[in-house]
Amino acid sequence: MRAVGIKNDTGPATSLFIDEIPEPTLSDGEVLVKIKAFGLNRMDLLQRDGKYPVPPQAPKTLGVEFSGTIEKVHSNVSSIDSFKVGDEVFGLAYGGAYAEKIAVSAKMIIHKPKKLSFEEAAGIPEAWITATQALFLVGCLKKGEKVLLHAGASGVSIAAIQLAKNAGASAVYVTAGSQEKIDFCVNELGATAGFNYKTQDFAEEILKVTDGKGVDVIVDYIVGQGYLEKDLRCAAFDCRIVILALMGGIKTEERIDVGSILRKRIRIEGSTLRSRTPEYQQLLRDRLVQEAMPRFEEDSFNIVVEKVFSWKEVVEAHQLMESNQTKGKIICLVD
To answer: Which superkingdom heads the taxonomic lineage of this protein's source (predicted)?
Structure first.
């Protein structure tokens, strides 16, 4: 089958090409999906550059989220999941989604609603499951609490804005690098307010709008470049800070007031998704199905797709993601 390869195994976007590799074989509990579309993620760029710790069960082929049609079902797939040949599904995988076919655990696929396109469905798994994990399993968000989401126009934060509002958050604040992205988060997704991290001290702004009390849950992908120090300043008592990525570097630029962690009883927890067990990922899948799928069906949740490429244009797709100018997901069609 065809799949996206990387010349010399690692390299820039221009090293990506359409390769020929063996079709995957099924193991216990897996289904074979003929892929219609796949979504791009930051981890794909890092893995392409050789800078991402790929889990041992992941194939060399990039990509963790996809949509498509089931072509084969292993005999050991539970009848509870009710997956059969011909079903339209979308899901999350340890890797291998930049391809014509993928073998994936039935624990991590979801029936695609008829009203969703394959392009839309391919943009759900990684962003929405990660947002579910960050807000609820790690961040323990409760009704009436206030949330701060960094990189507000990213796929995960777009999902998290909507999930937090649906869960009864009293305020959802975002940071972004342009007024255009802030306006998008506020006017189109319903965020309470947004702050430009390039021109504003978001910690000061958060304290102003919360009467000095701060926020209860912070989802941070940056950490470096002063972010963690500011997170601690605008954290409320008993705040939970969830660290999902290190886009701003692994070291903080400012001195950290460790005393504030103790004084405010702040919990800081890092979390990943790709390295988790299928059972853990299934818990998240099930929660997403319960809380989000009805909203997708009734059009009250917005799946934001920045641009759809042919997978033959995967180089351009990666270059667009590297530009940091996007809002929402970049999708490739397997044509």
So the answer is: Eukaryota
